């Protein structure tokens, strides 16, 4: 992925030395320098805009199920034939004790998925935005704490069993935006937190940003009827509720100092135009 990005964006790029905080660097045709970091903690603490597009849905998760004995972790074991299988832990694991507790709210769900890595990154983003300014925009497949078992695998654009052919499929789980909200919001005893807006469905987000205006411009500039139809089809995929319109969602983190400003001027995309 890094090489693909660098080849597309830069006229020259190279790996960085081990003494540098970033692991790759390049320069665009316009002279803009681009750096790749493998750890958010190494990114300079400056005013920044963070965009996490289909990022959180690929992070590792823990799966939990509510049983007669309480919450138990769903583990992966090997059956007698040597194949992978799911197994519910007999007792509370350490993950249950640490992750399935307030402020996380499972509600009426009997099954929850938690990404400790995702929660940690959301917390880092909130702290950075609040201390140094900027914002974080998260766009991903997800829900607002109402779905249960979403762990799945894709191979050649088809849904397959996550336990079959490990290493050959792309694994994913829908992002629980309610958990990201908890991780980024103010909690007792913590100084830095973010104002969290969203999530909103992609359909609503694009409509509120007047995406139809951009659509019309693209259609008008298309030179052939075939090109016009491709633009329409692409737009429909983005807003169709049965495709990406409702499944894809947006959330944003703003500095807590912007509270009064956001009350007066709600961010576009997350509020209706007045």
Automatic annotation (TrEMBL):
Domain of life, source organism: Eukaryota
Family indicated by similarity: Belongs to the NDUFAF7 family.
Functional description taken from the UniProt entry: Arginine methyltransferase involved in the assembly or stability of mitochondrial NADH:ubiquinone oxidoreductase complex (complex I).
Catalytic activity: L-arginyl-[protein] + 2 S-adenosyl-L-methionine = N(omega),N(omega)'-dimethyl-L-arginyl-[protein] + 2 S-adenosyl-L-homocysteine + 2 H(+)
Gene Ontology CC, one term: mitochondrion
A molecular function GO annotation: protein-arginine omega-N symmetric methyltransferase activity
SUPFAM superfamilies tied to this protein: S-adenosyl-L-methionine-dependent methyltransferases
Species: Danaus plexippus plexippus
Pfam families: Methyltransf_28
Compartments where found: Mitochondrion
EC nos: 2.1.1.320
GO biological process terms on file: methylation; mitochondrial respiratory chain complex I assembly
Keywords noted in UniProt: Methyltransferase, Mitochondrion, Transferase
Main enzyme class: transferase
InterPro entries on file: NDUFAF7, NDUFAF7_sf, SAM-dependent_MTases_sf
Protein name as annotated: Protein arginine methyltransferase NDUFAF7
């Amino acid at each position: 992925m890094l090489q693909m990005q660098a080849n597309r964006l830069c006229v020259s790029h190279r790996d960085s030395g081990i003494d540098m905080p970033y692991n790759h660097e390049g320069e665009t045709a316009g002279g803009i320098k681009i750096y790749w970091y493998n750890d958010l903690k190494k990114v300079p603490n400056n005013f920044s805009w963070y965009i996490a597009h289909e990022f959180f849905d690929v992070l590792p998760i823990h799966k939990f199920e509510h049983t007669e004995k309480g919450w138990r972790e769903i583990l992966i074991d090997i059956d007698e034939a040597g194949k992978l299988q799911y197994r519910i832990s007999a007792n509370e694991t350490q993950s249950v004790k640490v992750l399935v507790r307030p402020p996380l709210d499972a509600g009426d769900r009997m099954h929850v998925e938690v990404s400790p890595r995702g929660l940690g990154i959301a917390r880092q983003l909130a702290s950075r935005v609040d201390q140094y300014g900027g914002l974080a925009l998260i766009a991903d497949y997800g829900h607002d704490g109402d779905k249960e078992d979403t762990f799945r695998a894709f191979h050649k654009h088809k849904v397959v069993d996550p336990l079959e052919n490990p290493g050959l499929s792309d694994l994913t789980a829908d992002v629980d935006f309610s958990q990201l909200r908890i991780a980024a919001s103010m909690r007792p005893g913590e100084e830095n937190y973010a104002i969290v807006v969203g999530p909103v469905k992609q359909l609503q987000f694009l409509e509120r940003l007047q995406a139809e205006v951009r659509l019309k411009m693209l259609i008008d500039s298309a030179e052939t009827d075939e090109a016009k139809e491709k633009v329409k089809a692409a737009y429909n995929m983005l807003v169709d509720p049965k495709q990406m319109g409702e499944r894809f969602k947006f959330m944003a983190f703003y500095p807590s100092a912007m509270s009064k400003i956001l009350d007066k001027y709600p961010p576009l995309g997350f509020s209706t135009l007045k």
